[in-house]
Every structure is written in structure tokens, then in C-alpha cells.
Amino acid sequence: MSAAIDLKGVTKQFNDVTAVKDVDVSIAHGEIFGILGPSGSGKSTLLRIIDFLETPDTGKLFFDGVEICAGTVAAGKKMREIGMVLQKPVVLNRSVANNLAYSLFIRGWDEKKIDARVDKELRRCGLSDRRRKNARTLSGGEMQRLSFARSTVYGPKILLLDEFAANLDPRNVGLLEEQIRRYSSEDPSRTVVIVTHNIFQAKRLCTRLALMWDGEIVEISDKNAFFENPRDPRSSAFVKGDLVY
Amino acid sequence: MAIEYDVVGVTLLSLYVSGCATLLGSAIGIPLGALIGLREFGGKGLIKTITYTMYGFPPVISGLVVYFLFSRAGPLGSFGILFTPTAMIIAETLLVIPLTTGITITSVSEVDKSIKDTVRALGATPRQSVLTVMREAWVGLVMAAMIGFGRCIAEVGAAYMVGGNIKGETVVLTTAIMTETRQGEFGYAIGLGVVLILVAMAVFLFLRLLQEKEML
Amino acid sequence: MAISVAVVAILAVSAVGVYLMSQGEQPATLRMATTTSTWDSGLLSFILPVFENESNCKVQVVAVGSGQAMELGKNGDVDILMIHSPAAEVQFVNDGYGTNRTQLMYNWFVIVGTNGDPAGTRNATNSTDAFQRIYDNGTVGNAVFVSRADNSGTHSKELTIWAKLGYNKTEVAAFDSDWYKQSGQGMGAVLDMCEEMDAYTLSDDATYYSKVDLDLVPHLNITLGGDSALKNQYSVILVNASKWSHINATIAKDFLTWITSQDGQDLIKSYEKYGHQLFVPNAPGYSSTLSLQRVWTSALLTDMAVSCSKTRFVLGTELQRCAC
Question: Within an 8 Å CB–CB cutoff, is residue C273 touching chain B?
């Protein structure tokens, strides 16, 4: 089976800064793939490229073996199959229920079906009692749970999370990590990519890990191998907590 | 002794002319502003500058333009629109469009980038994205309509020129105020001014309610 | 939600519009351009309803400056003109824009100044002499004159008086702005300026009286009036119907016939405001069966010993001024 996501030779430059340098990485179905690295190493940019929010200067993207170029109709279609959760919780200026319903509404779902599904999801993420309130009145953790629910309610095959836990209290982090695990195990064809700089989180969640340094991917290993037997000296320094960032 | 005005009729006509011009100006300007604000294209900066510059467009010139177009001697004279409320609506719409467009451009531009990204990432089509961002900028869009209405209800130069201030036909509050002032009837003029402000206040209250209500 | 609001708003505005439109259904409409001073005198509001009743039509009046009124006539935007700018009117007709120019009525221009009358215009023999005195005093900083400077009928009349003293339009426009103020404003505004600046001006009597009536010009007086050179002649001109197919030529003609008829002229004569008959009808063939008596008095007599001037008209043709 082809890889869920395949990047070959992807480079992206912003003005003078090369955020992503010649990245090759292959992510399989069913994986929870973690991208570790210090801030500014290009992790977010890489994630945005996968979601077609940025267009790479060079390189190709393959999804299930099919090349898709940014800006095409196929890319637009693919975006609908990808879910993304950002570091900063983003909610639309409307009720909690309507925020959740938005993802389904833009996909042309029937109103009754939307209502039923929204009900179910709200119960799942514990926000039922807030359904009529304006989403902007939620706490940071609640907003992030809502963002997660909104990005997964349409069952995307690929879920991308960009430092989702930053600024969250432990309880909400725990809740969300549980949700991620559940999301991945529900369907073996789903792929999750998590960008984080928290090695403990990476250890808890991920099946495979990559270390990104200065725009380049310097190591890709299974989780255990990464922690016990890292090949690159920067990886072992990272794992030991010796790297300052 | 002032020439008597049917104050109710004059007020209704003011509302009608200003209301129509605001609706038309918003219907044109708000979508236009959203497209300009949310799309990248060559010359975008120039278009924005021109739009903002037109905030200061002299209303009497708008009146003159409409006059030249719809005068019997002009290209569109056969419609017989001059000296009717329709001509006043057209002249005022021309003045409102830069305002609604410009304020919408600013409002949608100010919607946080992360919202725009999230909406795209959730899979919205370009059209859906624009509509969603517009809804996020709702407060600003209603503001655009408010400012447009304010412009219209206070308009006198263009309204007098293309309307003619014909008694029983095209007298609005502002042209009536001008005539009364010209005749030295300051008390009456101020009275009409108070009516204008009260009427405008009612409309703005309604629009404010609109601004708040949408947040669900 | 926004859509439903928009729909409601559009329906509401349309409803108002339909209501308003339904108010104005009339069989036939005559559109007239006149000057703001004519309109502000209230004469038309007084006489038009009579015409509208008799002829079962509606008259729409657009009140603008003389120049603009003639432009509207040139462009066929109105059917008929009622203005008071004889030189320009003649040109208008000669250029083919109008027909049937008919003398209608007149009122008076007056020279207005402050009680102190620094230029001594009260002692002038006529308007030309008064202007000479104003000029002499103005150029040495002793008096100020405010001009309409807006190509109105009043302004045109003012220029004809300067012309008699040998100053053409360009020269007048070049008078020193220390004493000759070119305002570009309407008559009411100019009178306000004179009140503030202790200045002279040439005004139509109706506007002056309206200001007095509202007690807005306590320091101003008529310092000279009744000079036949200060006659303000009004005419009615039909817009040339052969140029435009849409002109309501028939109604326009009817109006002209009516307003120059004995009835129409008598109606004009009967119009009074501020205790005065404001307009003297003088259409061709009109004769009053009674002799016209018009008594001039200074609008304000002050504590100072000021001579008052009385002017008496006999049949509207001769003037006599007597000092009391």
C-alpha cells in the first residue's frame, strides 16, 4: 500500500530564510507520526505545506501514491480530507454548536444530520452544556477541545496537529491526547501527524518520530529506537534535554 | 413665515431616498470590498488607495455627474429621472459605494489570519471562505452600512441639485433645512434638524441591534 | 439571518416608496425653474394653487440661481422659466433656447446700509450717485460693500450701475477686497454679512423685508430706494418646445396666458407679505383700475435724526420722492 503522505525534496523559503530544506519523508496509514524539534526549525511550515496552506518552492507531494500540486482542484479536494488543529485555538464568532456544525455545513450535509452529529460530538468532548454560548466565551482548553472536535467531525483521513498543547492545562492536554489516540485507533487508514517540542508527549503518543533541525529532517526512527538508540547526536542531545531552545 | 412643509412626508422621503441608497450602496460595496480585501491581485494597493480617496469625493460633483447623465440634453435623458427621488438615490449611491467598499476592505483584512487559515483548512471552498470571513467581520460590515446611511441622510448638495427640492415631490429633510436657513427661519431649520437626528438615531439603533444579534 | 433582515429592509423601504409615489399621481405636470429669491418670497406658493385648480395640473418648481435656471432651460429640463435677469434673458431667447418672453411683474432693488450711513447714500440723488459715494468712501477705507458676485439677477443689476460709472465687469471684480467683498452667496447670507460687517449692499426688497420681519438685521436700513434704475423686472419665458419633444408646451402656454391675464396679474398684486405688496404686475395690457399707492418708509427709524424718504407711485410709472 502506498504511503498516506509522501514528501520528496520539498523546500520552502521566506524572503532570506529557508524554512524547509529538501525534506524527504514518508508517512504510512495508521501512524501517529511526530515531528520534534526546536522552535523555528520549520515544523509548522512543513505541516502547512502538507495541508496546502503553503506552496513549496521545490519538491513534490504524494498522497496514496498520487501526486497533487498546490493550487489545483485536486489540492482543494484533498484539503477537505485533512483536518488541522493549530496551536492557538481558533473559533468562529458564533455559538459552540454552530462552530462544530460549520465543518459539516460547508460539506453540504443535511441539517437534521448535522444536528444529530453535533449533539453526539458535543457530548463526546464534554461541551454539551455550552452549546448555545458564543464560542469566544470558552476557556482556552475548551476552545481547543472544540477546535479538535470541529476538525475531526467530518472524519478526515489525515489529522495534523501543530503544537496543540501549548498554553493548555494538564487536564485538557490529557483529554485531547486521549481523543487523538481514540481517533487514530478507530480507523486504521487514518494518519496523524503531530508537531511538538514536548518529548514526553511525543513518547506518549507517537509511533514514529522525526527530528527537524534548521529546516532539515535529521533523523526518522521508530519511537523506541529514537529514544533508546538515536543515530544523530542532535537527537540524543534533544532526548536528554541538553538542547537549549 | 416659512413655507410650510409636510414634515411627515418629507421625513418619509428622506428615509426612502437614504434607505434605498444605503441598500444599493451596501449591496454593491460590501461584496466588492470583501473580494478586494480577501484576494491578492496586481494593483490591489492602487485600488485600495483610490477607494479610500473617494471618501472625500465632493457630493456636489456627484450631483453634477448625475445631472449631466440624466438631463434631457444628456445621454440618459429620455428616462426622465431628473428631479425625481430616483435621481437623488442614484447620486447618493455613488457617494456611498466608496464608503461601504473601503470599510469592508478594512474589516475583512482585519479578520485574524489564523481564522482564514482555519477556514481553508476545514475545507471551505474559496466562495465559502469569503462568506465565512465576511460573517466574522459582521460588526464591521454593519458599520459600513451605518456610515453609508449617515452619509445619505445628511446629504444636501447633490440631493438639491438632482432633486430640485420640489415641494411635494423631492423635498427631503436636509434640503428643507437649507431652504429654511436661507430664508432666515433658523428655528424651523433647527427643528427639522432635530427630526433628522431622531430619525437617524432610530435607524442606527436598529442597525446596532443587527450588529449584536448575529453573534450566535 | 442576514438575508432575512435584508429582505425585510428592502420590503420596508419599497413600501414607503410605493406610498410616496402613490401620493403624487397627477394628470399633467408643468415644470418651472425660478430663482431662490422668487421662491422664498412665497409668491408662487400663493398663486400656483389657483392655477393648479383651474387647469387641473401640477406645477413643480425648482428654485435655483438665475444662471442655473437658464441652464436648466437650455437643457430642456424644465418647461418654463420665471426669472429676473433681462440682459441674460434676451441672450437666452436670441440663442434660440426660449420663446414668448413676456414681461410679468417687477419689484424693487434697494440699497441697504447701516444706520450710520458713512458714505452718505441717503443724500444721493439716485442709485448711480449712491454707488459713486460708496466707491469714494470705500477706496479710502470708510465704507464696505458686499456684492452677490454670483451672476444672479441682483448681481447683474449691481453691475449695470457700476457700468454707468464706467467700470466694466472685469474692473469691478478687481475692486480692492478691503472694501468690496465678493461673497458668491445668496441674498439672505449677504444681508447677514452686511449686518455683521456694517456694510452696504444692493438687495431685493422682499429678502430685506423678510430679514426685518425675523428681526435679523437690526442695524440695517434702506438708504436708497425707488430709483427707476433699481427696478427688478421679472419675465416668463417658455422653453423652446421645437427643440424638445417632451416639453409640456401646451400647459406652459396656458400658464403664460393665465399669469399675464387680468386675473393672474390681480392675484400677483394681491400678494402681501410683511405688510407690503411685494410685486407690481406689469404684463403688457394689464392696467389696474385703481391707482397704485405704494408708500415707502425706512424700515427702522433710529434714535438719530435720520431723514426718512417717502416714495409714492402713481400708476406705477412715475416716482416722486419727498423729504419729510
Answer: yes
Q: What ipTM was assigned to the predicted interfaces of this complex?
A: 0.85
Chain C nearest-CA residue for B131: C2
**Which residues constitute the domain of residue C267?**
27-107+232-281
Q: Which residue has the cell 416659512?
A: B2
- Give the Å distances, CA to CA, from B125 to A103, B1, B201: 12, 64, 39
**Please, what's the b/e burial string for B193-215 (b: 16 or more CB within 10 A of its CB; e: otherwise)?**
bebbeebbeebeeebeebbeebe
Assigned domain for C1 exists: no
In Å, how far is C111's CA from the nearest CA of chain B?
19
Query: Which of chain A's residues have a Cβ under 8 Å away from the Cβ of B118?
Result: 84, 86, 90, 147
Task: For A23-78, give the DSSP string.
Answer: EEEEE-TT-EEEEE--TTSSHHHHHHHHTTSS--SEEEEEETTEE--TTSHHHHHH
Is there contact between C and A if contact means ≥3 C-beta pairs under 8 Å?
Answer: no
Nearest CA in chain B to A99: B216
**Inter-chain contact C62–B85, Cβ cutoff 8 Å?**
no
Question: Using one digit for the tens of pLDDT, what is the confidence trace for C152-178?
Answer: 888 989 999 999 999 999 999 999 989
| pLDDT of C316 above 50 | no
Query: Is residue C66 situated within a structural domain?
Result: yes
Q: Would you say the pTM of this structure is higher than 0.90?
A: no
Q: Which three cell numbers stand for residue A129?
A: 452544556
Taking residues A65-79, report their average pLDDT: 89
Q: Which grid cell is A93?
A: 464568532
List strand residue ranges (DSSP E) for C190-250, in order: 201-204, 220-225, 231-239
Cβ contact, residue pair A94, B215, below 8 Å: yes
CA distance A80 to A101: 15
Give the CATH H-level superfamily of domain B7-210.
MetI-like (1.10.3720.10)
Question: In terms of DSSP bridges, do strands A66-67 and A58-63 run parallel, antiparallel, or are they unpaired?
Answer: antiparallel
Taking CB atoms and an 8 Å limit, are A80 and B123 in contact across chains? yes
Q: Are C234 and C106 in contact, with CB atoms under 8 Å apart? A: yes
